[in-house]
Write a structure and sequence with these properties.
heterodimer; A: alpha+beta; Ribosomal Protein S5, domain 2; 4-stranded mixed β-sheet; 4 strands; globular; B: alpha/beta; TIM Barrel; 2 domains; 8-stranded parallel barrel; two-stranded antiparallel ribbon
Chain lengths: ~100, ~290
């Protein structure tokens, strides 16, 4: 299993219970976050904060769209999935 | 106490977050066989974050890393050692030299993370004929080794056989594990019972391996935990008898006596030790294990 080519859409996670599926792809203008799932209306702000925190820590400055399909992931899981998806997007880890 | 150690797939948040609620004595966060090759890095990140941020109550927490024959094991260790795990479960250990390599890597990571060197214990999975043959030397190869565990499926394959319902093919390896573990002063833990729905089979196998001398068993499903605990937990009668024996042995030692009699039965040192072990398993006294 090789590394993904950097800059192509990349995914991490699943749609299973307590998990989320994170997809990262290039965006024309800015960092854009899209979240869908049952708990989004209540937790959108904290989820966005966590996503931004993880990407900032990884030094991300690209214009990317982060799409999250949530199925009850706690922040620890969300953070791990965003990190894995971003490192795959950058071609740093396998996919 | 290591009656049960529950495997949790390293890429399954549901199990990683809830695994400690099922009452196993220990947890094995699995980065090896439970995780497909394409998910190895993603699982490593998830397991690291769970270890950093979650509390596992009283459970002994270990991580099964990928084998030393892969390019993954050093990154696995680097991801988990800084976060206060009790130990690592190392697959396919075959030689004492492999323990030296693990020991060096652990010491270096512990130093970098300001974890006292030697904190991280090693549970050795002996899954090949060579590993079984070298069990005693492997158990003594590092002070970190705290348990040796015979393989199941992998060992059967290496022995050029398959796993039967009766477990005949693993019997000699299991007996060998006990002798090697006791001689080296480490725990002997049994491999998991693979047929999750077969409660009678699990019960039969656990009774047999407990009788051989195993300290506990790996489990792959929460439903297996109470069955194994029931077999390992001493009965009330066993506890009462053990209390009497331990007390009598202590009194005799204080009075400078050797063998004594309790309820018409001779009690010497081995009997007193066995009674102490019963009380340890009942959680009444603390063990002196490595």
């Amino acid at each position: 299993m090789g590394l993904m080519e950097a800059g192509r859409a990349a995914q991490a996670g699943t749609v299973e219970s307590m998990d989320c599926l994170v997809t990262i792809s290039p965006d024309a203008e800015r960092r854009r976050i899209e979240i869908s799932g049952s708990g989004v209306s209540r937790f959108r702000a904290t989820m966005e904060q966590k996503i931004n925190q993880v990407l900032d820590k990884l030094g991300s400055s690209e214009n990317i769209e982060i799409s999250v399909q949530d199925n009850g992931a706690v922040d620890v899981v969300l953070g791990a999935r965003v990190e894995a998806a971003y490192l795959r997007f950058k071609g740093v880890i396998d996919a | 106490m290591r009656r049960t150690m529950l495997y949790l797939p390293g890429n399954n948040p549901n199990m990683l977050l809830r695994g400690h609620l099922f009452g196993a004595d220990g947890l094995i966060l699995d980065l090896e066989d439970a995780v497909p090759r394409s998910e190895k890095s993603s699982a490593r990140i998830l397991v690291r974050e769970v270890l950093k941020n979650r509390d596992f109550d009283w459970c002994e927490v270990t991580v099964r890393i990928n084998g030393l024959d892969t390019e993954l094991w050093r990154d696995d260790l680097a991801a988990v050692v800084p976060y206060g795990i009790h130990g690592v479960r190392v697959p396919k250990v075959e030689t004492p030299q492999m323990l030296k390599d693990i020991d060096d890597a652990l010491s270096s990571l512990e130093s970098m993370a300001s974890v006292p060197v030697g904190t991280t214990k090693v549970f050795c999975l002996l899954e090949t004929a060579l590993g079984i043959w070298n069990a005693y030397d492997i158990a003594l190869a590092s002070r970190r080794v705290t348990a040796i565990i015979p393989g199941g499926e992998d060992l059967a394959a290496d022995l050029r056989t398959s796993r039967s319902k009766e477990g005949t093919e693993l019997e000699w390896a299991r007996r060998m594990m006990i002798v090697a573990a006791r001689a080296a002063g480490v725990d002997a833990l049994d491999t998991a019972f693979p047929r999750v729905g077969d409660e009678e089979g699990l019960r039969r196998e656990t009774e047999f391996t407990k009788q051989l001398g195993f300290d506990g068993k790996s489990v792959i499903h929460p439903n297996q935990i109470p069955i194994v605990h029931e077999i390992y937990d001493p009965t009330e009668a066993e506890i009462e008898s053990a209390k009497k024996i331990v007390q009598a042995a202590r009194d005799a030692a204080a009075r400078g006596l050797g063998a004594i009699s309790v309820d018409g039965r001779m009690v010497d040192l081995p009997v007193a030790r066995r009674a102490e072990y019963t009380l340890e398993r009942a959680g009444i006294i603390t063990g002196r294990g490595r």
